[in-house]
Fold:
Amino acid sequence: MTIETASPPAPALEMRGITKRYPGVVANDHIDLEVRPGEIHALLGENGAGKTTLMNILYGLARPDEGEILLDGRPVTITGPSDAIARGISMVHQHFMLVPVLSVAENILLGEETMANPVFLDRREARRRILELGRRFHFEIEPDARVSTLSVGWQQRVEILKALYRQARILVLDEPTAVLTPQETEEIFAVLRRLAAEGHSIVFISHKLYEVLEIADRITVIRRGRVVGSRIPSETNEDDLAELMVGREVQLTVDRGASHPAEVALRIEGLRVADDRGSEVVRGIDLDVRAGEILGIAGVAGNGQDELVEALIGLRRPAAGRITLAGHDVTGHSPRQLNEAGVAFVPADRHRFGLVLPFDVSDNLVLTSYYRSPFARGILRNDAAIETAAKETVAAFDIRTPSVHAQMSTLSGGNQQKVVVGREFGRDLRLLVLDQPTRGLDVGSIEFIHRRTIAKRDAGTAVLLVSAELDEILELSDRIAVMYRGEIVAVVDGPTADKNAIGLLMATGGRAAAGVEQVPA
Ligand code: ATP
Structure:
């Protein structure tokens, strides 16, 4: 019998000295990253640190200026996404790329139907393989189900199935849990663990430190384009990771003094709102928000929160009911009228509502005010005033951009969000509507926005906060309303709220859940 000296297996993926420069910024500065077979490797970094750039290089979407990529120890040049896929690399995107009207199988096959062989694609065989993969990784899914009928958690699994169908060995997941509930997150984690156990390598990008600590085997932290440290979860904690990422100590919870609620700023009475398909998804809501208080709306995504918010900011006409702002009926008013009445809005989907990506940063900062003084004189734009105000906001909100004239689309996701927040927070307000305001933001930026939200409250603004992050709701809210199937099923005091009781209400809508003491709506 011969005894072989076991040399450690080559890393599945090695990125060496990767450097990528964009005008005015070094997005990746000699980054080294090594991912072993069967490893879940978390990539952590503040907004604009360079995570997406590094993964775009891996996927062939961007070319590095320097450095090399090795797969199983062999240097490769990745020329584009189809080349990356052929080499076993797949991306599960943050903004899902699925086509809603197509079935699961059709989505998985999209792109497989090459021009060379459109006819011979064996659909039955494809169906069989999809079912088999689902069984193997314990997430069986009906291949004929239409994607639009699936929850976001299941859509995510379809994305993962698509990667597995293409025989990916290296999967990159960019903030996969941003839109998932805690249960869905656990389910996805179970899938990832099974993938890793079968030898797949996973690169996991997230801003949620507790998740990274739970799921990762190793963590690489980058800051301003450079690797600043590498950790294993058992030897670190959230505070350590936050400090490594941001380069200073971060307060993960903000101090919040007592609120001093004054007169009712927003009154919602008997509000009913339908969704795009005409079903009533807000079903008779009564709620007051006072000047100087933060009212948090807790609820599992998809319980009518989006439509409620859209009605409040004039994007959706209510079917019935009344909205009054400081005593004035504003039901059915346009977004611009509401904006002028002192209502600001930070949307969950910044690409749809918040930003114009082909415009530059300064234009985006005046999107809702460009026609007013000091940004306009008569019909003339006052470019100097726009530029000065933009520079101030960029500095105040720590927006990482080489210039206020950089095109919005070149900013990192988190910094795009900060532009929306900077614009909406930057004036006197009567009502501030925040919908998932910190989604995709790093811990330092979350701390900052939470502080600014409390400062707005203390300056007398009424704040309505919608968030799928129960921790964020608990952290900020003076009162918490729980929304379930289009109704408010409980309103409770924020500072004394019990997390488990609220979680139970969110999940079941049970009106008489133990431990919930109601306060006036
Ligand atoms: P986030 O957590 O906010 O998504 P990130 O770590 O993914 O951030 P990247 O998107 O990689 O950050 O951005 C890194 C830097 O590179 C940023 O300063 C960004 O503005 C810049 N950048 C990225 N893509 C481009 C581009 N196509 N043109 C110019 N600059 C770019």
Notes: The chain has 17 helices and 22 strands. The longest helix spans residues 182-197. The two ends are 78 Å apart (CA to CA).
